[in-house]
Amino acid sequence: MKLLEERIARDGRVIGTEILKVDSFLNHQIDVQLLDEIGKELYRLFKDKQITKVITIEASGIAIACAAARVFGVPVVFAKKARSLNIGKDTYTAKVHSFTYDSDYDITMSQSYLSADDTVLIVDDFLANGAALRGLLSICEQAGAKVGGIGICIEKGFQPGGDEMRAKGLPLESLAIIESMSEEGITFRKQ
Ligand code: 5GP
Question: pTM for the complete prediction?
Fold first, then answer.
């Protein structure tokens, strides 16, 4: 997605060799007009998939999920992050290793909001090693929900998550894929 690539190139900040900060438009301050365009692009990619829910993980995924869900006309359900396992019986849970904090956390989702009747679009801001996505896929599996699509804003193509998901045949679309990055600049994969 050209608009997103241009914005990353202009306002993204590369920290070291692996972290991209997009706090000025996606992760902290949010450019809602850009999110609207992201929502429309996700709709263009997955409109034929009979999506019934958009799911994500709190916190940064929520705004993106809302932008998509508005266009699809379906609800958002976000997995909650829990540091300790204080979880009722009626929840799906999965363990996720946090790329940004290098620690494990649990995600939980109420069984009331996802079932075998659902076809979901999974969205997130970043795809790096794939841990967050594996957690969401596990929750879908526990619910018996079908995965109609996976829409990622920024895939770091030099980390293994994206290729792993494609090798499994999952319906992954990343709006911008970073081939390489350094403090000198960012190179995107041609799609
Ligand atoms: P993964 O689980 O695929 O290793 O990492 C994805 C999750 O880690 C995303 O939900 C995102 O919040 C966070 N993340 C991974 N890489 C980056 C990055 O370069 N910048 C930011 N801001 N978040 C990242």
Answer: 0.96
